[in-house]
Amino acid sequence: MDMNNSKISVIVPVYNVEAYMDRCVETIVNQTYKNLEIILVDDGSPDHCPQMCDDWAKKDSRIKVIHKENGGVSSARNAGLDAATGEFVHFVDADDWVSYDIYSTISDSLKDNELVLFSAYFINLNTTKIHPDFDFEYLDDKSVSLEKYVNGEFLYSSFNKVFSKKLIDKYSLRFNTKYSIGEDNLFNYEYLKYSDSLTVINRPLYHYDCTRDNSAWHTKNDSFFRKWYVTERIFNDVEYEWFRSGAKSKTKLKGKAVNEKHDNNPENPITDAFYYDEIICEIN
Q1: Considering only CA atoms, which of 262, 130, 139, 121 is closest in space to residue 200?
Q2: Cβ proximity of 70 and 41 under 8 Å
Q3: Potential cystine with 41: which of 36, 76, 124, 198 (Cβ 3.0-4.6 Å)?
Q4: Is position 204 within any domain?
Q5: Does a structural domain hold residue 275?
Q6: In a domain? residue 224
């Protein structure tokens, strides 16, 4: 198998995003990297999204559409995983979009790695912030990488990661449908328990839209923080004690960082004004 041309399954949960969906899908179908399987999961959307999904499938043979009853984003991602046939998997939110060269950029890194991480543009009303801005050059120990996860460096999401489908299938990994906030954290922890290699690309390749009223980063209220707190406490359910007690003696994690200069987007000037609080506390 030529990993430089591996099929990547792009899973897009779709719910009530008719104003944003075309923007998202357009950036995926027009990628410079062509070996894609694009899975649009209509999670019982009440707007015009179901028809929009079908219309996109008529335009591009790489697109699969799943129509299902509403079950939440974790349920939609799991439905996409069940249908995915690619060697690697990327999750994209339908109200966000990706750079046109995202998969070409990461394709070389897929050869020897089970996890590829990259930065993203966090787009607010007037400002844009790049996050995470990776400041490390080389990862040579699993415990080092996990410490980054625990302190919130890049634990919080799945959209800035590309996962190995083989590893997901081998360990029957799925998103926990009990939780609507923090489900990414649990999946990332569970995945990293079994991953032996990763690459970090210090370049923003994903565009996260924080301007929607119901986007996760826009709804930081008391209930939101309580859910995050509950999620942290649930880490015991995925037995993360293996990290605290024995990670340093476990198998070495091969890793490297690819640092590339990125140009500021004049339409989205990067400033320090856009700032969001850390919501992942260090686990004592």
Answers
A1: 139
A2: no
A3: 76
A4: yes
A5: no
A6: yes
Number of domains the chain contains: 1
Q: What is the CATH number of the domain that holds 123?
A: 3.90.550.10
Residue 284 lies in a domain: no
pLDDT, tens digit, 9 for 90 and up, residues 207-250: 998 886 555 444 444 445 544 554 554 444 444 444 444 443 33
Query: In this predicted model, what pLDDT tens digit does every residue of 99-136 receive, in sequence order?
Result: 999 999 999 889 888 989 898 888 877 777 776 666 55
Per the CB < 8 A criterion, the answer to whether 135 and 63 are in contact is: no
As beta bridge partners, residue 42 has 14, 67
The residues, ordered by sequence, that sit 6+ positions from 247 with a Cβ below 8 Å of its Cβ are 142, 143, 146
pLDDT in tens, 10-61: 999 999 999 999 999 999 999 999 999 999 999 999 999 999 999 999 999 9
Nearest 5°: the CA angle 47, 126, 11 is: 40
